[in-house]
């Protein structure tokens, strides 16, 4: 116990420092590793769906429910992971969840039916969804104060980077190795990384900020004048993730249905995620200089216009590239902005649950988006109209960010 208290005191002194320490470097590298593996294991299904559809002789819309249940699991995991991290310790919780979603991703390679695939993807989503809010909370609480925003940005950037790696792996190896091997390749790194993560994460220092509300209960997010902020943040997340969930889940399949070969479809879809890496990095950097909510007022409409034009430019190479880059930049950048808002909106005592619930509520949109996409694809809605309908949610998200910016000045409560 004395050893742990001494380590916690050392951690506290480092957090108050202004220098980027070795501990900061280790913490951010571990965080990037966790979030990248999360993005890889979760996104791989989106790229393998066309191959599974062909192997099992399914209609293209059949796997739409698979996208939806995975997002549902991720939403539940985001909420439960934040609670578990606050109650049982973030270090142990994130390591256990990482190992579990790695094992489940590998187990998905043995799926022989759609119901079993649905069950495995749901369970994988629950485990994977719990890791990111815990990691962001660790960075926001234990990172050196001066460097916290940059550390959080670096970690969030790893989400689309993991998805882009999934697309590149599919483009390179799917034709020769098959989809089952790619599930294993996506899960094994998480299994191997989990014990290393637990060993290298430093003991957690106690928080100096306390809330009068039970930190493990969601009502803490509505205390002390946070109600308007929380509701605006949640609405903004739902609308953005509705569009993002549709795009990330259906782009490879829709490109294949439009006549592109599997390799080109994977590469185009991975470009959407690669541009998201730049979006997260640039938006995260801009958030240090400008008020994030006001910045999102520009990002959301720009992303909505680009997403709407994807359907009408599928066979126009340069135009499609531009639309994918802008849409990926804006939707991922907006998610980055929302996550960053969550990390600075709540006090440390409820930060894990605040981040977790913001991500969980946002995932409601990501659940509905892929399922709604499957329904509309089944109705043979023309691509131009399909993408336009989904892009409209970006403008609703812009209204939510406008309200958040109007209600707050530098995130002061308006209550």
Would you kindly provide a written description of the structure presented here, covering whatever features stand out?
The chain has 415 residues and is mostly helical. The chain has one domain (2-205, 213-407): MFS general substrate transporter like domains (Growth Hormone, Chain: A). It has helices at residues 2-16, 22-55, 64-88, 90-108, 114-129, 131-142, 148-177, 179-200, 227-257, 262-286, 292-310, 317-345, 351-378, 383-407. Helix 3 (64-88) runs antiparallel to helix 4 (90-108).
| Helix and strand run | HHHHHHHHHHHHHH
Percent helix among the residues? over 70%
Q: Over all CA atoms, what is the radius of gyration? A: 20 Å
Structural class: mainly alpha
Mean pLDDT: 84
Number of self-contained structural domains:
1
What is the gist of this entry?
The protein has helices at residues 2-16, 22-55, 64-88, 90-108, 114-129, 131-142, 148-177, 179-200, 227-257, 262-286, 292-310, 317-345, 351-378, 383-407. It has 415 residues and is an all-alpha fold.
Could you give the topology of this structure?
Layout: H1 2-16, H2 22-55, H3 64-88, H4 90-108, H5 114-129, H6 131-142, H7 148-177, H8 179-200, H9 227-257, H10 262-286, H11 292-310, H12 317-345, H13 351-378, H14 383-407
Helix pairs in contact: 2-4, 2-6, 2-7, 2-8, 2-9, 3-4, 3-5, 3-6, 3-13, 4-5, 4-6, 4-8, 6-7, 6-13, 7-8, 7-10, 7-12, 9-10, 9-12, 9-13, 9-14, 10-12, 11-12, 11-14, 12-13
